Amino acid sequence: MSVILGIDIGGSGIKGAPVDVQTGKLVAERHRIPTPEGAKPADVKKVVAELVRHFQHSGPVGLTFPGIVQHGVTLSAANVDNDWIGIEADQLFTDATGCDVFLLNDADAAGLAEARFGAGAGVRGTVLMLTFGTGIGSALIHEGVLVPNTELGHLWLRDKHAESWASDRARENDDLNWKQWSRRASAYLQHLELLFSPDLFIIGGGISKKADRWRDLITLERSQLLPAALLNDAGIVGAAMYAGAQVGTVRPPRPALKPQRVEASATMSKPAKTTAKAGLTGAK
Ligand code: BGC
Fold first, then answer.
1. Are residues 87 and 60 in the same domain?
2. Per-residue pLDDT tens over the stretch 205-229
3. Which numbered atom of ligand 1 lies nearest the CA of 68?
4. Domain interval for residue 201
5. Ligand 1 center to residue 135 CA distance, Å?
6. Which of 160, 185, 238, 282 is the most buried (most CB within 10 A)?
7. Is residue 216 situated within a structural domain?
8. Over 80: is that where the pLDDT of 267 sits?
């Protein structure tokens, strides 16, 4: 049995558990520590180190981050503190914990876990996972292989920034009922369907617990749609799977990386000109 510690950094909690990466099962009860106010790197690293101590873990660690992670460097901060932008976060956490830490985007982790052990288990072809919460995260997986950092929550459709318009936070902020939100989600998903032709959409994030409210209201042309099956554990399991796949591989020298300008949804301004028109008519 190969057990790896998976840790998921979320907006309200940082949670972890040791995972058997062959089965996707947690081998101990997960432990959650509230995310420190402001979620600054220096504070988050202390919490991650505390989780490692809690499990008396000494092997590799997989860790999620809610932004772009390229070669271990955090390059965007749409819904977290700007201090994350451009730092070698894998090294920061490796130094803080004394363990080899492997970092990936939160939705990518959830997608890896769902595609292998959750709603996508046994599905051939292309799986597109979307997490609807404060933001919208995305993971594109073909035959088990992840294309990292797709960031499809930051797609612009006509004059709508997808994440600001169709996330769960947008549903709450705009006081939408489930029918109204589902119209927005359908328009967004139909556009993604046109672009990626996924065999299966997996819908995760906070709304996956309330699937009975929206499942029958979302309409697609060709793809299948399922709510996420692993719920709160997907990030932990996917992080551990990712670390498991990286262990023993040589980390290539870090290329020079430029931070990505992705503003928080609330301050997002629309690009000068957009041309995408598909699928938005009629949605509130
Ligand atoms: C970030 C993504 C993240 C998603 C969910 C978005 O704002 O840009 O990287 O996966 O939120 O946390």
1. yes
2. 989 999 999 999 999 999 999 999 9
3. 9
4. 123-232
5. 5
6. 238
7. yes
8. no
